[in-house]
Design brief:
3-stranded mixed β-sheet; alpha/beta; 7-stranded mixed β-sheet; globular
Length: 250
C-alpha cells in the first residue's frame, strides 16, 4: 500500500511539475493603456510592515493617477492607522463590525464598496511587490481578458532552517497553484496577490454564501467566479508579478 501511494504521489507531482513548466512566461510590454485600479489591503496590527508596503506601492511604474490604495484597518490596537495616515492620498477605512465570521472578507468587502477602480487588486500588509507589479497585472489583464488573475507569492527568508523549509514548502505549493489554474484542474490561489474585475465580484454577489466561513477570501471567491467564467481564470507567470512576504520566525 505504501509503495502504491508513493508511486501515485510521484506521478501527481511530476504532472504538476510538467504543467508548471508548460505555463508561458509573460513579458510585460513597455507601455499599455491604463485602466483604473483599486488596491485593497486588509490590515490588523501591522505597524511593522504596512509602511514598507505603502512605500513600495509609491514606487510603482504604473501611472499614479490610475490607481488608488485603500487600507482597511481591521480592529488594530497598535499604530497601523497612524502610519497609514502619514502617506498622502492613501484611503484609510476602519472595520467596526463585530461578531462576524470572517473579518478579512468583511474588510475586503468594505474596501471594494469604497473602490472606484475597475480592477480590484488585493495583497496583504506584510507583502512587498516589485516596481512593475501593477503594470504587469494590467498588461496581462488586457491581453487575456481575465476576470480573475492568480499571481505568485514567495517567502523572503534568511538562512535559518525553519525559514528555508517554509520557503521550499511554499514554493512547491505555488508551483501546484500555477499548474492547477493553467490546466483548470481545481481552484487554488493566494489572497496576497490577486486581481479580479470589480463587476465580476458583484456579479457573483461577492462573499455572499461563503461569508459564514472564516477563511476563503481567495479560493472560495475564485471558485464562485470560476463557475460563472470558467474560461476567464488565468495564472500570471512572471518575475515582475511576484509578491514577497515573510515566513514565521520560529
Amino acid at each position: 500500500i505504501f509503495i502504491s501511494l508513493f508511486v501515485c504521489y510521484g506521478i501527481l507531482i511530476l504532472y504538476y511539475w510538467q504543467s508548471w513548466r508548460s505555463i508561458p512566461d509573460f513579458t510585460t510590454p513597455s507601455a499599455a493603456p491604463a485602466i483604473s485600479i483599486s488596491i485593497i489591503i486588509p490590515a490588523r496590527n501591522e505597524e511593522r510592515n504596512i509602511g514598507l508596503l505603502l512605500e513600495a506601492l509609491q514606487k510603482q511604474t504604473y501611472p499614479k493617477e490610475s490607481f488608488e490604495i485603500i487600507v482597511v484597518d481591521d480592529h488594530s490596537t497598535d499604530a497601523t492607522g497612524e502610519i497609514v495616515n502619514r502617506f498622502p492620498g492613501v484611503i484609510l477605512l476602519k472595520l467596526e463590525d463585530d461578531a462576524i465570521n470572517s473579518y478579512k472578507k468583511k474588510a475586503i468587502e468594505k474596501g471594494i464598496a469604497a473602490a472606484r477602480g475597475d480592477l480590484i487588486i488585493t495583497t496583504d500588509a506584510d507583502c512587498i511587490p516589485p516596481s512593475a507589479w501593477l503594470q504587469t497585472l494590467v498588461s496581462f489583464k488586457q491581453q487575456t481578458n481575465a476576470a480573475f488573475i492568480v499571481a505568485p507569492v514567495v517567502f523572503n527568508c534568511n538562512a535559518e532552517i525553519v525559514q528555508v523549509f517554509q520557503a521550499m514548502d511554499f514554493m512547491v505549493l505555488q508551483g501546484i497553484t500555477g499548474a492547477s489554474v493553467y490546466k483548470k484542474i481545481h481552484s487554488m490561489c493566494n489572497g496576497a496577490n490577486l486581481a479580479y474585475e470589480r463587476k465580476s465580484f458583484y456579479e457573483v454577489n461577492g462573499f455572499t454564501g461563503i461569508d459564514h466561513i472564516a477563511s476563503g477570501d481567495d479560493m472560495l471567491l475564485m471558485h464562485k467566479i470560476a463557475k460563472k467564467y470558467p474560461d476567464r481564470i488565468q495564472y500570471l507567470k512572471s518575475k515582475n508579478a511576484i509578491v514577497s512576504t515573510k515566513p514565521m520566525e520560529s
